[in-house]
Write a structure and sequence with these properties.
Low-confidence stretches: none
Shape: globular
Radius of gyration: 17 Å
Mean pLDDT: 87
Order of helices and strands: HHHHHH
Number of strands: 0
Helix content: 55-70%
Oligomer: single chain
Strand content: under 5%
Largest sheet: none
Distance between the termini: 38 Å
Number of helices: 6
């Protein structure tokens, strides 16, 4: 129960952050893909920097999960085709829908109901990848 409340609180904070930073705005995403504004690149860059520092600290301090296990922070194998193809598919979906997976729930919270179609498509795409993964070159 406590874990669920913790996740809910962090989700609410994340949603407020996405809303206040205008990361849920289709116009801001359009500006980014047109290279007309630095706004979204600043948000993404800040998230990457905070994430990198967080992972570094987690490794250094030996942070554990809520259940007491060590975090599995193993380095990934570098593969240009893997990241190029996956990133291109992700980027095309982002450009077509005007939303990356992070703000989807915030948009649903704002009652933009068509985003439910995007969320369902994202879930189906994830399931399809899960089934196809053993057959894909990694």
């Amino acid at each position: 129960m406590l874990k669920g409340i913790t996740y809910l609180i962090f989700g609410i904070i994340f949603g407020i952050t996405m809303s206040k930073s205008e990361a849920i705005s289709w116009y801001r995403i359009y500006e980014m893909f047109q290279f007309d504004s630095f706004h979204m690149y600043g948000i993404i860059g800040t998230a990457v920097a905070i994430g990198a520092i967080g992972i570094m600290l987690f490794r250094k301090l030996g942070v554990k999960t809520l259940s007491g296990e060590r975090l599995p922070l193993n380095p990934k194998e570098m593969s240009i085709p893997r990241y190029l193809i996956g990133g291109s598919i992700f980027g095309m979906g982002w450009a077509l829908t005007g939303a990356c997976p992070g703000p989807l729930f915030t948009l649903i919270g704002y009652e933009y109901w068509p985003v439910l179609i995007v969320l369902a498509s994202a879930i189906l795409g994830t399931l399809a990848y899960g089934y196809a993964r053993p057959k894909l070159p990694h």
